[in-house]
Amino acid sequence: MTSSEEAETEETVTCLHLTFYHPGQEEKMMFRCLNFCKREQVRADDAAKFGRDSSVCRYNLVDTRVSRIQFSLQFYRKLHTSEHGFEIKNLSKKTKLTVNQTELGHLNKIDLPWKCIICFGDYQILAEIQEGESVDYFETHLHLAEAPISQERCLPRLPSLQPIPENCISPALFLPQGKSPTEIDENEL
Predict the structure, then answer these.
(1) What region holds the FHA domain (predicted)?
(2) If we measure between CA atoms, which residue out of 68, 112, 66, 67 comes closest to residue 89?
(3) What is the pTM of this model?
(4) Which of 82, 115, 158, 176 reaches 20 to 30 Å from 188, CA-CA?
(5) What is the CATH number of the domain that holds 28?
(6) Residue 73 burial (CB < 10 Å; 0-12/13-18/19+)?
(7) Which residues, in sequence order, are bridge partners of residue 85?
């Protein structure tokens, strides 16, 4: 047996990718305390807190308009499955938090979708969950966006509502410019 055959199976780790944007980030440097260089491990039983109080929050935002503790992300295992997820809770008494258009007041919480946009004030955070198997810890990987994070660019699109012809060939491809298709009775063919 080779050493790779004898080695234990490597366990994959759930990673939460967070891409941050604020319109004044270049001049105000509110993200200067965040580590954008590498993945960071977080124990599964720790809540990842975001806010301006560096003694309480693991992820510190240097901005007086951000609450001491703005929100938290808690890693958990879904009941009766081996799947993992994150729960987001708004901990700010003054600022509402939105997750993909769902507004959360103080102490409201919801499951974090696998890909979503978190907003509060002028802050936009794109959150993307990369699934893994580890139950002891998860990782965070922080990124910085240079442009605003838009709903259209980041969220999954709904299926097109355009009808699909039975033969899968769109008649619009063969029509002269400005002409629209007309319906004919199949007996007229």
Answers:
(1) 49-121
(2) 112
(3) 0.74
(4) 176
(5) 2.60.200.20
(6) buried
(7) 76
On whether residue 78 sits in a domain, the answer given is: yes
Q: Which of 125, 108, 70 is nearest to 92 (CA)?
A: 70
Q: Which two tokens stand for residue 96?
A: 């509402």
**Does a structural domain hold residue 23?**
yes
SS (HEC) of 115-167:
EEEEEECCEEEEEEEECCCCCCEEEEEEEECCCCCCHHHHCCCCCCCCCCCCC
Domain that holds residue 43: 13-152
From first to last of its 189 residues, the chain has per-residue pLDDT tens of 555 566 556 778 999 999 999 999 999 999 999 999 899 999 999 999 999 999 999 999 999 999 999 999 999 988 888 888 999 999 999 999 999 999 999 999 999 999 999 999 999 999 999 998 888 999 999 999 999 997 555 544 444 344 444 444 444 444 455 555 555 555 655
Contacts of 4 (CB under 8 A, 6+ apart): none
Residue 32 forms part of a structural domain: yes
- Contact indicator for 48, 15 with CB cutoff of 8 Å: no
Tokens of 127: 């959150």
